[in-house]
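job 3f2a | input accepted
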Amino acid sequence: MNGGAGPQIGEASLLPDGSRWPNIRDLTGESLQAKYAKVLETLSRHGGIIGAIFLKAQNEIQDPAKLRRLVGLIDSETWLGLPVDVKGDIY
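job 3f2a | predicted structure (91 res):
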């Protein structure tokens, strides 16, 4: 999966620089934990629909190893190949 997704769908990303999937997908441990918290904070302060989606978002995963595992599982999916209904259910 490419969380930056812009180049794959021909549209510019609405996410601010530093807050896209490539910015967290390869991190581990405390670096991942800290960056993920920062991304959530940045997105929650962003205007428009992005800010509304992430308003008051918090990382509830306290174990960096579990967060790393979750990021790996998400990264292994082919999101653009999923039907819209499945994406809606996931969201």
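job 3f2a | Confidence is low (pLDDT under 50) at residues 1-6.
job 3f2a | closed
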